[in-house]
Amino acid sequence: MTDQHARGLFLRSMPSPFLVTAALILLGLVIENSTNAYTQDVVLWIFTNIILAASLNLVSGFTGQFSLGHAGFMAVGAYLSAWCSFRPEFQALPDLLRFTLLPAIGGLGAAIAGYIVGLPSLRLRGDYLAIVTLGFGEIIRVTLLNTEAVGGARGLNRIPATEGWLEMGLSPYLAQFSIASFWTVVTITTLWRIVHSQKGRIFLSVREDEIAAEAMGVNVTQAKVRAFVISAFFAGVGGSLFAHSVKYLSPATFSFTKSVDIIIMIVLGGMGSFTGSVIAAIFITLVPEFVLRPLQEITKVDLRMVIYSLILILFMIMRPTGLLGTREWSDFAWVKKLMRAISQLLKRGSDGDSSSSTSPSGASR
Amino acid sequence: MSDEILLEAKKVGMEFGGLKAVDAFDLQLRRGELVGLIGPNGAGKTTCFNCLTGVYKPTSGEVIIRGVNTRGLKTHEVSRLGMTRTFQNIRLFKELSVLDNVIIAGLQHARQSVLDDVLRHPRHYVEEARTRERALELLRIFNLEGKADLPSSSLPYGEQRRLEIVRALATEPRVILLDEPAAGMNDKETEDLMHLIAQIRRDFRLTVLLIEHDMRLVMGICERIIVLDHGCIIAQGTPAQIKCDPAVIAAYLGVDEKTTEAT
Q1: Tally of CA atoms within 13 A in the half-sphere of A95 that contains its CB
Q2: Which domain holds residue B96?
Q3: What's the confidence (pLDDT) of residue B252?
Q4: How confident is the model at residue A276, as a pLDDT?
Q5: Considering only CA atoms, which of A312, A285, A307, A287 is closest in space to residue A46?
Q6: Do B114 and A226 touch (CB under 8 A)?
Q7: Helix (H, G, I), strand (E, B), or coil: what is residue B8?
Q8: Of the candidates A53, A203, A272, A335, which has an alpha carbon nearest to the alpha carbon of residue B117?
Q9: Are A219 and B74 within 8 A, CB to CB?
Q10: Which of B107, B109, B138, B167 to mutate to test the interface with A (most CBs of A within 10 A)?
Q11: Rounded (5°) CA angle A274-A276-A281
Q12: B178 falls within a domain
């Protein structure tokens, strides 16, 4: 491959994440003007859940390390970000910039935690690793419970959120929506590009056969730690978005159940499929709110958890590999055909900016 | 053939609990040699391989690869010294494509960073194309190019064995250890394998250490044979010498005192 050709591919890969973000923001505009405040909040949770599910999928689905502590990383990100947003030092930054950067701070804190948890995972496999990560999640929760600086059991109240930029016509909700979609696109694009690179195949080789991978010169230890750190970073990002959209944090939120919720998303969507994680995250956020809750109001009985569990059990019987298994949206024949048609159309139209034919971030749709 | 010693084992011992699986194993592998390691089932051959490649940490003795003592090195570091292996029970990355199997083995020579991958930096494209081209080249040499995109588990048995060798070659080794490459193969396939081993040795200037049960294969291509029984070397020499060695005949080919070997 010539350098020029490579540069061409590089330039072509650039615009698609921005285009997807822009499209999502337009969608946010529509949602803001056509739905009530409750629905708007639920939509924000979708972004958080997509980020959490996709990041856990890197560790569990692609690298094959079963982790039960994802809520712990999320908690680190959420609390760190919320705590920082109260600090006067951060008030110096302009509002929008502050709330765009806070998820990165939450993510960095969680990444450090991920490194610490990643270390014992070098020696442990399967069930044992699951127990260690479970223990980690509980340690985080209990620590938060007993730390007065972050409210202890009372939790953190009235967490600030972005105020938007009213002079520019950017409402607080739309600003929040934009920040969330920005970070979702960053998450999916980064994870997708890592896994869909040759070096990303290293994670898969660890999942497939550790001993063979080592014999082929793969540094298995390093691969696992990397997977944990990257995954924890984005879990922290998700936690931060959660903190500023719900505006209230309590240690009870980040219990073992929260970790299981995220695991259900990746199992349902397919271990090893980001597309599946995205779809499952949307599904699992929406169904309890818009199907099960109205149902409860009609029947006057709380059947939510029963129906929820039934759906899961049926799913596991009928599709044990999850919705998509390890396939991605781009692996389906009709998508490939469609993409080929679009790229031909674009080529005929103009030889210039054909953009999203190889767009990885399209998976966030 | 030079006198340079690429792989040396000095009194390597491996104990599991009280069981001595390998005892005082000595080996000197010179550049370009093809040495066979034989012995009855349970003699400790694969344990030897695992000690040499760092999968097991030998309980005594040392292994020196190209002048580097491997004590304390991890398996992947041993592999990066230029010695790699295949497995007795095939260990391909089953759900990954044939091409990906070979690409992963070649990645230790790739130069892009994770950041290059995430930003889709031009370097990412250049390096990926280079690694991919090299992997395809290897597959072409071994007639697997047409199956590059299939999952490796879908290959027929003989081709899976061949792919394991190709994958090992992708790490660009100087020494390759083959653990029963002919296991489960019919006569025709074994014949092909003999040519294949001769070919990779010649074309890739490899030094080969071979574990094998198939006597025809071992006697046919090895210059030197080491016989292991109950973890100890009981004989070594040319195929002709080994064939007549009474200790080998007793232990390996089996005479009236045939014992019940643990398999």
Answers
A1: 13
A2: 91-172
A3: 66
A4: 93
A5: A285
A6: yes
A7: strand
A8: A203
A9: yes
A10: B107
A11: 95
A12: no
Query: Mean pLDDT, to the nearest integer, of A141-150?
Result: 92
**Nearest residue of B to residue A186, measured between CA atoms:** B118
Contacts of A209 in chain B (CB under 8 A): 91-94
Q: Does the distance separating the beta carbons of B92 and A9 come in below 8 Å?
A: no
Residue B231 resides in a domain? no
Answer yes or no: is B6 within a domain: no
ipTM of model: 0.88
Instruction: Report yes or no: A240 and A81 within 8 Å, Cβ to Cβ.
Output: yes
Q: Phi then psi for A325, rounded to 5 degrees?
A: 65, -125
Q: What's the pLDDT score for residue A351?
A: 52
pTM value? 0.89
Considering the domain boundaries, does residue B100 fall inside one?
yes
Q: Which amino acid, A105?
A: I
Amino acid letter, residue B180 = E
Angle at CA of residue A328, ends A325 and A331, nearest 5°: 105
Q: Quick check: helix, strand or coil at residue B41? A: coil
Contacts of B100 in chain A (CB under 8 A): 201, 204
Residue B39 per-residue DSSP state: -
Q: Is A302 helix (H, G, I), strand (E, B) or coil?
A: coil
Q: How many domains does chain B have?
A: 1
A216–B75 CB contact, under 8 Å: no
CATH code of the domain in which B153 resides: 3.40.50.300
Convert the pLDDT of each residue in A168-204 to its tens digit: 878 999 999 999 999 999 999 999 999 999 999 999 9
Which residues contact residue B239 at a Cβ distance below 8 angstroms, ignoring those fewer than 6 apart? B36, B218, B219, B222, B225
Residue-level pLDDT at A294: 83
Q: What pLDDT, in 10s, does the model give residues A88-140?
A: 888 888 888 999 999 999 999 999 999 998 887 667 877 888 899 999 999 99
Q: Do B122 and A201 touch (CB under 8 A)?
A: no
